[in-house]
Records
---
Amino acid sequence: MSRQQGDWQISTRTPESRALFERVKVATRLSAKLSAHSLDDAESIQRDFEELIGKPVGAGFTLIPPFYADHGLNITVGRSVFIGYQCAFSGHAPIDIGDEVMIAHRVNLVTSGHPVEPDQRKAAITAEPIRIGTNAWIGAAATVLPGVDIGAGAVVAAGAVVTRDVPPATLVAGVPARIVRQL
């Protein structure tokens, strides 16, 4: 991925974009495999999630299927992380989840998109990493967009759309998410 103007950009119709599409095929297949498990089979859930992300997760990992990812190898998970059902981690830039993070059901972590200009939309995929600090809580059905850092101890309210960084120990809510108060 080439780095341009603060984000990562992949031109379409290139060997790099074709390789990325091949990874999408693998990740969606592994997501379906992971999503077939019931919560009673925590060991298989963890094993299949680790296969999807290509590395071990921290101790105390809990995920409630189904779960969706279109890349996977870009995800890093700390210890004692909880991920609720129907979450989607999408995009091709890194997603770094710190220790003791809680991610409620139907949360979307989206690291990629397309250029805004109409004549460039189909020519490239843009991406920026998402970082979630220790002991953060992402509420149900929240969406975190590319390039956002969520500080340690922060809370993202249910349904929020996070378009910019969240300071540590801060509650944000709304569309777009705004600071409600310090914690």
---
Amino acid sequence: MDYLWTPWRYRYIADASKDDRCIFCDALAMGDDSKSLIVHRGRKNFIILNRFPYTTGHVMIVPFAHQGELTDSDADTLAEMMQLAQRVAAALAANYKPEGYNLGMNLGRCAGAGVTGHLHLHVLPRWSGDTSFMSTIGETRLEPEALEITYDKLHRALAR
């Protein structure tokens, strides 16, 4: 078995486990969507850029309700989550032309969740070769676009 180490993620994991504050609830409470990187608000969920993205366009779809378990979410929230995943995939396709996507949830600390108390769905656009030698050997992630530019592109695309 091969192992790929991701030390650039340590800062995120270490910061997330320092206190009981919720980064998603804090983003909502900020009241400034562009500063908190909330690109779209639905009825029951919102879409937020990941501040520590694996790839350009890495977003999370997050219920407004602060619940950590999948079983705690109602059917309408989960249905809208998938509908927003479709919308954001279309917005990413129009702006970035990815070759594929990863969608996933990490439920619980042992499953890799950095934020355990607030359910969220990751949507990552993917391209062949997007994990280069810099990530795997150089312990450095290369992001070709500033978060503010990604925010503007996705915010405009999702407003339609």
---
Amino acid sequence: MLIDHVAIYVNELEAAKDFFIKYFAAVPGELYRNEKTGFSSYFLGFENGAKLEIMTRPGIEKDEKPFLKSGYAHIAFSLGSKSAVDELTEKLKKDGFGITSGPRTTGDGFYESSFIGFEGNLIELTV
């Protein structure tokens, strides 16, 4: 079995798409729009075949996203090397994103950093 994709609702669809293109080299598919419901989405493809669907529709609430809650916690991107994690973390910091941890080697042996990305979502960078 293979997970086909993960989907996330966003408030600003185009800004979210641009974020993933800029920092993670995402390749967006065609914009899907349902005129009846106002739902719109993009499927974003990544180098290894992973897919992320970003979606929006009228009425999405802009709420705080506490990190210690049940449900999805974060999305992690494997960058392939410690130096890639270090470089992207530094670029994100310079671009004004809040780094929440790292880069560091965790107690269970992973090299990672995490930051608060678009619309307050937690994103992890790892080798």
---
Amino acid sequence: MLKTFKQFVKEHFADNNALTKPNAHDIALAAATLMFEVIKSDSDIHLFENQQMAEQLRKQFDLSREEIAELVTLAENASDEAVSLQSFTRQLCDSWDNSQRCELIEDLWLIALADGKIDAHERHVIRKIAALLYLTDKQIALAKIAANRRNEAL
């Protein structure tokens, strides 16, 4: 009986790394979905925000225009279907270190700033995402300051 149980575990759970280690596509989709969550949070989707999202995805993941367009479409669908943000943030926590997660929050602030102002809903979503990424208030504030500086330089 013990051998049968071991066989069952081996057959059904041997590929646990596939469940715990997301691939590059999954990570890009998770990040893009979180970016889109910020864009749609104020119920007013601006072209500038979409352009900023595309630019951040290009920089972060070194994607072509076609790949970005496909990723954005997938992210919009994932965002619409998502019950919570935790599955997306979990993938990033499992794959990225703290500095990479801080960079994402900076990118989210930059996307929120693309239309010239940070709405209360955008602020709330970014803080919620940052908390799910286990970032501190200081890290969130520093990311916002860095995003403001980058935005002014544009």
